[in-house]
Specification:
The complex is a heterotrimer of chains A (about 475), B (about 280) and C (about 180). Chain B has helices spanning about 1-10, 10-15, 45-50, 60-65, 105-110, 135-140, 150-155, 185-195, 210, 230-235, and strands at about 30-35, 75-80, 90-95, 115, 120-125, 145, 175, 220, 260, 275. Chain B is α+β, with helices and mostly antiparallel strands and about 280 residues long. The model of chain B has no long low-confidence stretch (mean pLDDT about 90). In chain C, helix 3 packs antiparallel against helix 4 (about 100-125). Chain C starts with a strand and ends with a strand. Classes of the chains: A mainly alpha (about 475), B alpha+beta (about 280), C alpha+beta (about 180).
Chain lengths: ~475, ~280, ~180
Amino acid sequence: MKDIAIHSQEKDIREDLPWKQINTDILRSLDNPRRGYWYSIIVCLVLLAIGFTAEVIQYQHGMGMSKNHPHMWNLYIATFIFWIGMSHSGTLLSAILHIVHADWRKPIYRFAEAMTTFSLMTALLFPVIHLGRLWNFYWVVPYIPSRGTWPNFRSPLSWDGFAIMTYLTSSALFLYIGMLPDLAIARDNTTGWRKRLYSTLSLGWCGNDRQWRVFRKAYMLMAIFLIPLAVSVHSIVSSDFAMSINPGWHVTTFPPYFVAGALYSGCAAIITLFILLRYYFRWEEYMTLPILEKICKLTFAIAMMWTYLNLVEFASVWYGHDVYGKEVLWGKMTGAYAPAFWSMMFFGSVLPFTLAFRSLRRHIPTMMAVSILLNVGMWLERWMIVSPTLSQSFYPWSWDVMWPTLTSWAIVLGSFGWFGLLFLVFVKIFPSVSMYEVKEMVYHRKLATEKAAARVGGAAPAYGAHMKKEDAV
Amino acid sequence: MSSLQNLINNWSQYRKGIEEGGFHHYEHRWGMAIDLNACIGCNACSTACYAENNLAVVGPERFAKGHFMHWMRVERYWDQPEKEFPEQGASFLPMMCQQCGAAPCEPVCPVVATYHTPDGLNAQVYNRCIGSRYCNNNCPYRVRYFNFWSYYESSWPEPLNMQLNPDLTVRDKGVMEKCTFCVQRIRTAKDKAKMENRKVKDGEFTTACAQACPTNAIHFGDLMDPESQVTKLWATHQVSRVDEQGRPRHEQDKQNPELRGYRVLEELNTDPSVMYLERVRETLA
Amino acid sequence: MKKSHRLLGLFSNFDEATKAIYDIRADKVSGVSVNDVTLISPIEHPEVEEALGDRGVHVQFFTLFGGLFGLIGSWLWISAAQATFLVQPQGGKPVVTLVTNFVLNYEMMILGGVLFTLIGLLVGARLPSRPGTLYSEKISLDQIGILLEVNEPNLAPLKSLFHLHNVVEIREEIIR
């Protein structure tokens, strides 16, 4: 009777998980992953090498390696938006779920925030790579100039600089501060260089009530800042297009559309990485299917939001009857880029319906494939934003279709290697599941279970007996 | 502190957009009038531009890829399909930087490499350009050209390098460039006039394209000078830029067939400095 | 008043530890006030902290200051930079473009807020510091610690209070 009341719903996490086991299981990721982890590292290194070679060639010879006259922006900017977009879900979802005290965030937010930080670092490469004279990229930074020259504070590109730097700083700090108590745990359980590293990074955290009180408030304040920040960052990236005068770019729905797309690809990426980490580190106890299901449902909702905003954009272009904009839209749907466009529509709006079925949501290989394909769709979306407009702008003389060159494909692939490498190194060095918060989660569940047990009249187990007897000294 | 003082003192001046006359008090506003009736599409203007401005000759392969550098291009449109041989019906449009008054390319440059001079020109500072190419993306006329390669390595094999114009630079890879209205000639003329303590006279100098045009289709001059030929042409055809006081442009009488003047993509409010005179066509009727 | 000893009791049962603090609060040990108590716990623990009574947190003032500083400071900075960099009049737009500067001011407000929150955290939580010699690794695992600074005569009654609540381990040191 009691069991039915409590266990009718599948649990996000077992409440009888011993705390000692939480520590061991998570800290095991620091030295004992499955072999698949090392294969992934090798794949990433190869991709990075390809991309790096292409970049060296492009640096030597010039941007002619990847661009031509009307296509001044191309894969690089599309991939830039893709990575920025991917960065959105981690910190934004973590912050939102933190504010509303959603406990299921706890096992998954750390790696999601790491994903944010590293995909931002990847995104940051692209505006630099795409510069004609990338050795002068720092001229966009508003350092105090000795000759009285400043960057152009009116250019959406320099807003990008501000927004990305703010977002990178804030989300890295959010990640770091949320990790402080875990670094202390790692400090207490390791030796050698790791101990020195964690001792320095944990700043001598000991978990006294003063620290926890300030921590709680500061962490909440940061979460509150990060939500509007994340929204603003992708709207600012959308300004690169929306603030220009080009047909197909100059669209007022772009900022919300970009934010929805960002959340979408970020959520899909969280699913991918969730499955990978679960596999690498044998974290079936922590990254449970109910949590995966919750992310999938969220992704489905966001996919529908994205679909809606996409259709609204088409509708407003169609009914606005701006000749140029309409031509670009029609060109996208029927012109040279039509295969990419319709693939994007399929991957972005039709494929997510797989997430609506419980049996598919719980089938890990399917979810792995779907989440990757969703991100392929989102990547195509970004390409379909950048290229069709450039190929068919105001001026008929400059109409031209350009397919990406080998060099740009290589650099795009290289960016995946770069991101993957950063991420994989991170999860090997830092605890990528929040130990202290999983303990809290287990503890909260325990209290809830006891309450429920008391309600149905059963004898409450000893309050606060959150550890196994044999662990007590 | 002094910069804050400056901000407060000149606040109203710094807040003037083009509608209120803008920040600049223009000394000159260089402009053009191109008579398409006279244009025979001979490309002399383009060739002259190549010679004057050290434009890289890219070769057919690169040209086909879209890596060309012709600041002045003569576009061909076959818009008279009723002709027996369509080739006969080509009409030409010489297209170069329109030196817009409210240029879309300017505010998007992240490093202020493109800006507006007190002469009313869009200046491109090669040294400052980092090659983000946003300006070209936002240019509705697509008249900006990017140095995709180090063209100088192959464009002027010996002894052709001897014919490079010493008055301006040879650009390396990674910077954007575009028509300057032969700013080196403008500079020389202004310096000479200043030395002789007079104003620049109309017709005293002209751009390379205008100079080379065999049919005199291109007229160049100062739109601020009420006596210049360009000003008069603009006035005749009732085309006007926003002036220094931000006075509204006067409406062109659309009913009058004599008024042939128009500016390309004027509906975008870019306020170009180049006026085209529409070609008068023979009708079969 | 400087205390002579530092005493740490480790509890494996959160409930017992809470009760121990309530006992100190109820002056069960004379001369020891609840204000001398520092609770050291492995997780964020509002339920137990309630026993300690109201202890203020001031990090939000740092945040407020940082946000305002970022907002106003960046507004002045960017406008002044634009006003001195007069080559900027472009695209027919004014020199100081308030509407677009707002985007940057917004970002800088958030950056200021976040950075000052970090400073507030470090100041408020007295970080970086050292965990102290009494610190036990069991705290970062699953035990809760009650740390007190007391004078010699209070040591024995406190220890017996701790034992009453099933303390797992008691550590002490002399404050030099």
